[in-house]
Amino acid sequence: MEVIGIGNAIIDVICKVDDNFLKKNLLTKGTMKLVDEIEFKNLISSIYIERTVSGGSVANSIVGLSQLENKVGFIGKINNDSLGQKYEYGLIKENVSFFYNKKKETIPTGTCLILITPDSERTMCTFLGIAGKINETDINEKIIQNCKITFLEGYLWDKGEPKSAFIKAINCSNKVAMTLSDVFCVERHKSDFLDLVKNKLDIIFANESEMKALLDTSNFIEVIEFTKFLKKKFIITRGDKGAIATFDNKIYEIPAKENLDIVDLTGAGDLFASGFLSGIANKLSLEKCLEKGVEMSSKVIQILGARL
Questions:
Q1: What's 107's DSSP letter?
Q2: Range with lowest mean pLDDT among 204-218, 252-266, 275-289
């Protein structure tokens, strides 16, 4: 396979709310908050569900890669409950090989409440469920060794079993790509993420805010200087300012597409990564990889949800 993704296997529950709903529930717009099952049920009890779909950051990227006709797979932990069965079907119908044998668990399949405000911004509340219990035994070394790129998400990094699974995957990979996922995620794991970026990863995806948080700076020039110093491929998305890739002391830049009918920003970074990684898998130039990333992200923000 070209790319194997490892991440939180989450069912997305998409709802439209106003800004007051976020304020009332002490939620920070544009971020992801981890919640327990009780808080999740309380949040969802008073709002209308627009749709449910198989999700998870890296899983969304892997589906995008499959839609671009790349051979891909995914590893993520689900329960053999109704949501878990729906999750597996959502991958299989997109021609993604799912490398996890689900079984009956005491903890349910993970769920992410995606709250979309009138400005199209998304705020997420995630109950990880069994997805957050992924461990070393869930990682098949032979499958990873037979893939060109392993793609990981920062959301998966947590002390204990998930961290051990993460490290095992890195150690048996040919090439490792990772998305930093979220500013709060970066703040929680800053020292670990810095070590990964400097010493373990080959390709790093982040948005501007995540990179600034990682480096404790408000100056984007400092971010660029840091990325140029390391012999890695850094891909930094900047919203309406487009995106930048740095590699081998060179900077590649692409503007954002204009005049789009933006509906929902969910999945913008996920699909950008799928476009870029598709370019890498097909040996395109970094300029062409950026173009493919912008093309995919521009498509997904004009529909509801994180998958095309």
A1: S
A2: 252-266
Backbone torsions φ then ψ of 287, nearest 5 degrees: -60, -45
Q: What is the DSSP string of 128-162?
A: -GGGGG--GGG--HHHHHTSSEEEEEGGG--TTHH
User: How many of the other CB atoms lie within 10 Å of CB of 211?
Assistant: 26
pLDDT at residue 73 tops 80: yes
Point out which residues pair with 110 in neighbouring strands. 10
Which 3 state secondary structure label does DSSP give 48? Answer: coil
Burial class of residue 180 in the structure, from the number of CB atoms within 10 Å of its CB (0-12 exposed, 13-18 middle, 19+ buried) = buried
- Domain boundaries defined on the chain: 57-100+132-300
Quote the pLDDT of residue 239.
Answer: 87
What is d(CA 191, CA 90) in angstroms, rounded to the nearest whole number?
35
d(CA 22, CA 26) in angstroms, rounded, equals: 6
Q: Which CATH architecture has domain 57-100+132-300?
A: 3-Layer(aba) Sandwich (3.40)
- Compute the distance between CA of residue 215 and CA of residue 201 in angstroms, rounded to an integer: 16
In one letter, which amino acid is 173? S
Among residues 193, 142, 128, the alpha carbon closest in space to that of 166 is found at: 193
Average pLDDT on 256-265 reads 86
Question: Residue 30 in contact with residue 266, Cβ under 8 Å?
Answer: no
Q: What are phi and psi of 172, to 5 degrees?
A: -110, 10
Rg of the chain, C-alpha, whole Å: 18
> Rounded to whole angstroms, how far apart are CA atoms 11 and 29?
20
Q: Got the DSSP string for 172-229?
A: T-SSEEEE---HHHHHHTHHHHHHHHHHT-SEEEEEHHHHHHHHT-S-HHHHHHHHHH
Q: Does the pTM of the predicted model rise above 0.85?
A: yes
Q: Compute the distance between CA of residue 86 and CA of residue 83 in angstroms, rounded to an integer.
A: 5
CB-based contact 5:73 (threshold 8 Å): yes
Spatial separation of the C-alpha atoms in residues 58 and 294, rounded to whole Å: 17
Q: Strand, helix or coil at 74? A: strand
